[in-house]
TrEMBL record:
<dbReference type="GO" id="GO:0004089">
    <property type="term" value="F:carbonate dehydratase activity"/>
</dbReference>
<dbReference type="Pfam" id="PF00484">
    <property type="entry name" value="Pro_CA"/>
</dbReference>
<feature type="binding site">
    <location>
        <position position="132"/>
    </location>
    <ligand>
        <name>Zn(2+)</name>
    </ligand>
</feature>
<comment type="function">
    <text>Reversible hydration of carbon dioxide.</text>
</comment>
<dbReference type="InterPro" id="IPR001765">
    <property type="entry name" value="Carbonic_anhydrase"/>
</dbReference>
<feature type="binding site">
    <location>
        <position position="192"/>
    </location>
    <ligand>
        <name>Zn(2+)</name>
    </ligand>
</feature>
<feature type="binding site">
    <location>
        <position position="130"/>
    </location>
    <ligand>
        <name>Zn(2+)</name>
    </ligand>
</feature>
<dbReference type="GO" id="GO:0015976">
    <property type="term" value="P:carbon utilization"/>
</dbReference>
<dbReference type="InterPro" id="IPR045066">
    <property type="entry name" value="Beta_CA_cladeB"/>
</dbReference>
<keyword id="KW-0479">Metal-binding</keyword>
<dbReference type="InterPro" id="IPR036874">
    <property type="entry name" value="Carbonic_anhydrase_sf"/>
</dbReference>
<keyword id="KW-0456">Lyase</keyword>
<comment type="similarity">
    <text>Belongs to the beta-class carbonic anhydrase family.</text>
</comment>
<dbReference type="InterPro" id="IPR015892">
    <property type="entry name" value="Carbonic_anhydrase_CS"/>
</dbReference>
<protein>
    <recommendedName>
        <fullName>Carbonic anhydrase</fullName>
        <ecNumber>4.2.1.1</ecNumber>
    </recommendedName>
</protein>
<keyword id="KW-0862">Zinc</keyword>
<feature type="binding site">
    <location>
        <position position="189"/>
    </location>
    <ligand>
        <name>Zn(2+)</name>
    </ligand>
</feature>
Length: 308
């Protein structure tokens, strides 16, 4: 009797085979039958012998079937285990060469600097930027190792304190309270996929991680809709990209240990916007002014600059 193998691709035994492997199957033809309750030897009967012979035949059949399964699986594995395409290998070869070039031309030439960095970091900046692959603060603004403590997330958001723990406010806590950075810079950018997702959402019931995260910027969306309702969708997105940065700057002040340092002039909060369509960078400051009587405002955005 040869049992059909249901699946030769994966290493598993079909239900038909599994049914032939109960705990009572004899794998040793010289075993001693025992009483289930006392574990004492019991007398062998003719029926026991017949059962044992039948079980041995079944075990032999199972072994043969499993061997066929193993051979079939191995054959398919060998077929699939082909060399990776050359271009995949070349990608990491390129990264390897970049690293070796960095070590030779940068690390070794500034060896003492990197040895000091190995002992301690004293960055002046905390940078919060988008995870977008086109927006790299070190590349755009020239930050060198040791100059900026960074966190990157979808749409460069800073959730308020009331939203609870996140990797972003954990990084903020470490940067402000332990490293005592002097500046926090939140950088938005053009054609942000996270902001476009936010602006196109019809409701907040979507359970995806992206939608749950991006709704933290919903007040920036509300503000944009109120002031740019007649604008095109693309224009609304551009407006929301900057408004979201402003909202994140205000959210920073919901953390007491940030607000205290800002009020004591120990910490400055900056907004930035990188437009990679025309390679310009906008920069402004959040000014905390408790005594400001203009429309009852307590915070102002000032010193707006465009670098082009």
């Amino acid at each position: 009797m040869v049992l059909p193998i249901l699946c030769s691709k994966a290493r598993w035994i079909s239900p038909s085979l599994a049914a032939l492997l109960p705990s009572s199957v004899c794998r040793d033809p010289f075993h001693v039958l025992t009483s289930n309750s006392l574990g004492l030897p019991r007398k062998r009967s003719d029926s026991d012998s017949r059962i044992e012979q039948t079980n041995l035949v079944q075990v032999s059949s199972v072994k043969n079937s499993i061997m066929r399964l193993e051979v079939s699986s191995s054959a398919k594995f060998i077929v699939k285990n082909v060399p990776k395409p050359k271009n995949e290998v070349e990608v990491f070869d390129d990264i390897k060469q970049r690293f070796l070039s960095f070590k030779k031309r940068v690390y070794m030439e500034k060896l003492e600097h990197y040895r000091r960095l190995a002992e301690v970091q004293v960055p002046k900046f905390m940078v919060i930027a988008c995870a977008d692959s086109r927006v790299c603060p070190s590349n755009i603004l020239g930050f060198q190792p040791g100059e900026a403590f960074m966190i990157r997330n979808v749409a460069n958001l800073v959730p308020p304190l009331e939203n609870g723990p996140s990797e972003t406010n954990a990084a903020l806590e470490f940067a402000v309270n332990t490293l005592e950075v002097e500046n926090i810079l939140v950088i938005g950018h053009s054609r942000c996929g996270g902001i476009e997702t936010l602006m196109s959402m019809q409701d907040e019931l979507n359970s995806s991680f992206i939608h749950k995260w991006i709704t933290k910027a919903k007040f920036a969306k509300f503000k944009t809709k109120s002031v740019a309702q007649s604008h095109s969708f693309d224009e609304q997105c551009r407006h929301c990209e900057k408004e979201s940065v402003n909202r994140s700057l205000l959210n920073l002040l919901t953390y007491p240990w940030i607000e205290d340092r800002v009020k004591n002039n120990l910490l400055s909060i900056h907004g930035g916007y990188y437009n990679f369509l025309n390679c310009t960078f906008e920069k402004w400051i959040l000014d905390v002014n408790i005594d400001c009587n203009t429309d009852g405002a307590k915070y102002l955005f000032k010193d707006h600059e465009i670098w082009s």
